[in-house]
Amino acid sequence: MSSHDTYRDHDRNADSFHHGRQSSSSRFSRFSRPLIDSVRNGWSSQSPAYYPLTSANDDKHPRWVQMALSVVAAPRFRRYVIVYLTLFLLGWAGWALVISPQLDERAAMIRALDPHTRKGGRFGANSLPSFEDLTLIKNLDPKFLPGGPVNVENIGEESRRRLVIVGDVHGCKDELSELLEKVSFSNKDGDHLVFTGDLINKGPDSAGVVDLARELSASCVRGNHEDRVLLLRKEMIETKTFLEDQDVGKDLYTKKELEERALARLLSEEQAQWLGECPVILNVGQISSMGQVVVAHAGLVPGVELEKQDPSLVMTMRTIDVDTHVPSESHEGLKWAKLFNKHQSILEKSLRSSKEDPRSDLMTVVYGHDAKTSLKIRTYTKGIDSGCVKGGKLTALVIDDDGKQSIVQVRCRDYS
């Protein structure tokens, strides 16, 4: 091959090389993007749909709009929105359902207990109805109070006396015996037993409970079940149906009424007399750190003297009207114990400046009756009906010499 041909082939190859480079460069520029566009990190790894700034319509919006849309579309922003919205809703629910009702209730109680807001009549100012065969108030013998002298010969020597106050038994004798054994009750050592009422009815052995209470020289208050059965017993005697084996027209009675009539017949004269002597209110007396201790079956109206309390309501109340102070058997409304505690706490604050021991002028109420609320121990009210007869517990409030209080319970079978 001549040198001329060799040079011509070299030029042809050179032209082909340059032409290939130009074609490749053209294809690169047409179908590829700059290398920086291929860089990805944790923020930009999502679909381009999340980033309006990279859309083809970016030029149609101002830059601040593009930035706002970019922030709103970011997944982290949405997570923050969900978290803060959830916290807001929880806070609103807590305020609306818990805090605000409690503040409203507190304001209503303070307003109800303020003597300057009273208008017209007020419960306790009315004359009480008269009831036959019923004792409103009885004072507990001081010899049963914890911490008193053992006897006259050993005056000054402190006893180991305890008050054992038991909630609604409702005829559950086995559970009562178990509870007394658990607290190591011994009236020979100075212990004294007190019942908050409703010793009888519903349970399997009402007569046995009364016999055990009498055997232990216990004190008691009259509950609504004692009241109903004793009144029924008196009515049956007066209408000469007491000795009948079966009630005339018994189909007219409910099962509950038939059971109560059977219990009224079952009680002996001695048992009925002992129950009838139970007062509506037992004034226990002064106990260290508790002030004046009172036992009532259902409750007391705050600010009303014991002598002016309505006996029927003391045996049945659960709630109280804040405007009139009239009690009610209903479960709906303000619990009387809440209003009573508020009344006593306000009174304690007013006595602190003038009394060295303001608690001595205050009152603590121990009560039963409200099994639905069950055990409810507050500063000035002690609710100890824990629903034994329905399979709950039987509760005892034990008060030691120095006023120290403890709760002892046993489980019960369901007799309902």
Automatic annotation (TrEMBL):
Q: Name one GO cellular component term.
A: cytoplasm
Q: Name one GO molecular function term.
A: endopolyphosphatase activity
Annotated segments matching region Disordered: 1-29
Q: Which Gene3D superfamilies match?
A: 3.60.21.10
Q: Does the keyword Disulfide bond apply?
A: no
UniProtKB keywords: Membrane, Transmembrane, Transmembrane helix
Protein name in the entry: Calcineurin-like phosphoesterase domain-containing protein
